[in-house]
Amino acid sequence: MDKNNAIEKWSTLKEIQEHLGVGRETVLNWISTRNMPAYKVGRLWKFKISEVDDWIRSGGAESRKETKRKSES
After folding, report:
1. Number of structural domains in the chain
2. Taking residues 7-15, what's their average pLDDT?
């Protein structure tokens, strides 16, 4: 299979925690309050790392203080 056509694998909550260097509760909080891209499969949360990275880059994980400072500028 061509690398450009490769399908991105689903990542687990633990893999996302390790990828971002944050705790379980932080990820779950971001899912419920900040629209972090996540998909419930049965009882498990699944993620696409590319979607999570895009969400981070767009400011989805910024603290409330950082967001407020930017809007005041």
Report:
1. 1
2. 97
